[in-house]
Amino acid sequence: MNIKEIKDSIWEKLHDKIQQQKPEVRDKKYFILQNILSMAGGLVFLLIILFLFSFILFFISRNNLLFFGHFGLRGWQSLFFAFPWWLLIVALIFIFLLEFIFKKYQIIYRRPLVYSLGIFLALTFIFGTIIARTSWHDSLLEQARARHLPVLGGMYRNFEEPANLHIGQLKEQTETIWAIQSRTGEIQFVVISPKTKFPQGNIFALDDLLLVAGPSDDGQIEAWGVMPFQPRQFDRGFGKLRPMMK
Amino acid sequence: MLASYEQLNDEELAVLTQKRDGQAYEELVKRYEAKMFRYGRKFLRNQIDIEDLVQDTFLKAYVNINSFDKDLKFSPWLYRIAHNTFINAIKKQEHQPFLFFDPDALFPHPIARDKTDKIINDEQIKATIDRCLAEIDAKYREPLILFYLEELSYQEIGDILQIPVSTVGVKIKRAKDKMAIILKAQNYEY
Q1: How many angstroms separate the Cα of A35 from the Cα of each of A4, A32, A38, B33, B80?
Q2: Torsional sign, CA A181, A183, A185, A190
Q3: pLDDT tens, A184-236?
Q4: Which of A108, A134, A158 is the last residue of a domain?
Q5: Taking CA atoms, which of A180, B1, B3, B86 is between 20 and 30 Å from B25?
Q6: Interface contact A22, partner B, CB < 8 A
Q7: What is the interface pTM, i.e. ipTM, of the complex?
Q8: Judging by beta carbons within 10 Å of its beta carbon (0-12, 13-18, 19+), is residue A184 exposed, middle or buried?
Q9: Which CATH class is domain B103-185?
Q10: For the segment B49-86, what is each residue's pLDDT rounded down to a tens digit?
Q11: What is the pLDDT of residues B120-144, one digit of tens each?
Q12: Which residue in B30, B66, B164 is closest to A28 by CB distance?
């Protein structure tokens, strides 16, 4: 059978197929519903992305991770290991899924993917930062601490104290051992060695708030960096530290 | 009665099909069956049963006719269905991995279109495409067929393949570069 003969018979075959199979012509409502579901799915993904991204920013701010940068290579290494990479990866996966959901729409596919990805990332960054600066995550953290947050509670509690970074009020000071009191009232001993870095000088008065970088073992911190700590407005958690300790 | 259907354009026929007018759809099938066979034959290189796939394309178009937007052109809509049907057939046959995104569509290609537009009317290219099609990757072969053989515009091809217009230009340019290499190897003047 050549192409011409196949062509000649296709309508008859198609017609027979339609008669036999009686395929149902999908109603317009089906496609409207499909679009609504796509949009709703995209919106859910968008909210998840915003939540994850704002949580990452909240986590960095709350735990003062950027202070690691003051303590040289070891500080940067600690920052790298303390950073919630898996959350970032999950957020990026959701951004790609969002792109995948929307790529059938002309407004997305008619432009290079890098543009729409860039726009998604920029919007995520802008709105994630705005959300991170509200008290929303703080209130969720409080609920998590009080065990009133069922699903996300564990995530908030697990992300609280990063390793190798400690904040406390200076209570006692000798040449090599300092005592600091943490937000929870716990006393920790800071071992000062010749290798300890003081990026902003090492003159401190009692009751000063300190940020100490170094591994902690059984209440004793081997300090490889100490600097004064000023709770900023953004660091709401530690903003509460000063009044509580006074 | 059929004579009046012949006077209607594709979009008007599609709207009538949406209203369950079987004769209107018959007219559409007759208008496009040769194009679909040619597209399938060139794109799939006779690897798969083209007749079944073309029937499948028209059946899917019939079932999904209500997703056609009467304000848009019918032809890219139908080619899009054919493209998906053919791609699925190739994937089944060759067990190709599923790609989330076309790497060529990732970045902008500002100059690709200008270079290709200069030779749109080069009949020599049309004549030599057949000679090389089998040796060109499917992802470059398809825009080449749609542009030179089906004579669709860049925008229409972009809508069928759901890629930016500039990426269409890049793919056609790459296909032509590949063709030049093939023809050179065959000692054929290009």
Answers
A1: 40, 5, 5, 30, 18
A2: negative
A3: 888 999 999 998 988 888 888 898 999 898 988 888 999 989 998 876 543 44
A4: A158
A5: B86
A6: no
A7: 0.75
A8: exposed
A9: mainly alpha
A10: 888 899 999 999 999 999 999 899 999 999 999 999 99
A11: 456 667 777 777 887 888 788 889 8
A12: B66
Domain B2-94 listed as CATH 3.50.50.60: no
Q: Which of B58, B66, B101 sits opposite A26 (nearest CB)?
A: B66
Are A220 and A191 in contact by the 8 Å Cβ rule? The answer is yes
pTM for this entry: 0.74
Chain A residues with CB under 8 Å of B112 CB are none
Q: Looking at the structure, do residues A140 and A214 belong to the same domain, yes or no?
A: no
Q: Which of A106, A46, A80 has the alpha carbon at shortest distance from A164?
A: A80
Scan residues 83-142 of B and list those with Cβ closer than 8 Å to A. Answer: 100-101, 105-109
* Chain centroid offset of residue A152 CA: 13
Any chain B CB within 8 A of the CB of A7?
A: yes
Q: How far is A49 from chain B (nearest CA, A)?
A: 19
| B59 interfaces chain A, CB cutoff of 8 Å | yes
Residues of A in contact with B106 (CB under 8 A): 112-114
Q: Which residues contact A70 (CB under 8 A, 6 or more apart)?
A: A199, A200, A225, A227
